Amino acid sequence: MTKRQMTDNNILADFLVKTSIGYYCRYGNFYVDAMAPVAVNVISHAHGDHATAGHKAMWATEATFAFMRNKFSKLPEDTLHTVSFGTAFSLGDVTVTLYAAGHILGSAQILMTYQGVRYLYTGDYKLQVDPTCEPIEMVAADVLITESTFANPAVKHPDPVTEILKLKDRHSNIMLGCYTLGKSQRITALINQHLPELEVLVHHKMHPVHKLYDQLGPQKLRYTLYNRKAMKEGPTNKVYLVPPLTFNSYFKAKNVLKAFASGWARLQQQNDIELYISDHVDWLDILSYVNHVKPREIWTVHGDGKQLQAHFEGTLLVRDILKVVE
């Protein structure tokens, strides 16, 4: 791995580094969000680009493990270490604490403290209100290791209530594409609250995840498992939630309006309704969170950090996380 590197403010430049399989902390000898089996892995949340199986030991929240059990047929219980938000545990000489990230139910920021320096890995996070998951906890840190998916001044996520109201008075059933975990439950809650006249039907892959949200989340959802008869009969007040692959396979579907809930403009093309609802932070959210965290350095992951580097040039060190040549 890399040689020990330290800046003049006691921050270890190589405390957490990017490898081919995930983020590695050699000072505690563990990985964060590893994509291939490792000895010790701390998992921020249950989305597939962050959570994988096969590790000898895993640390995550109760909800994250519940979603992983639903996805993976073999997840040995003796490898799972369930951690509550705010409870510290040790990996080597590093103290680790999970804090709510507000991204989906059970999603966690990972605070790692070593030799008095606090390194905060955000994972995916959002600041917008979402009644289906824990709200983000503001955490002070010396180093903010932030996702930068939408770290661009041109990106501003609109108000989700304004967006969901685009489905009102459409006089047609709607096929709405959204991710199975997190987004579909948030969409269901938004419809339940702001468009109670609409009936939510969920794809069979979403149904068990909705049930887990009912069991573990802060709010009960109103929905029905999709069946063709229900969609075809009765009033045209149905919103059928489907995963991305199913949505794409229905590109010739007739007698329905098509929408896809996402912050990405490319996913709005050729749909009947634009629905910009994102579970990530936008540019202003990141700047707001930096103001709360008050870091001495920012390291960027999961995107392009160049705009943040330019914005803070001369006032705050911003750089991509170090990459290790293996």
Automatic annotation (TrEMBL):
Single Gene Ontology MF annotation: RNA endonuclease activity
Domain (Zn-dependent metallo-hydrolase RNA specificity) ranges: 277-311
Family matches, as Pfam families: RMMBL
Domain of life: Bacteria
Gene3D superfamilies for this protein: Ribonuclease Z/Hydroxyacylglutathione hydrolase-like
Protein name from the UniProt record: Putative mRNA 3-end processing factor
Source organism (scientific name): Sphingobacterium psychroaquaticum
Lineage: Bacteria, Pseudomonadati, Bacteroidota, Sphingobacteriia, Sphingobacteriales
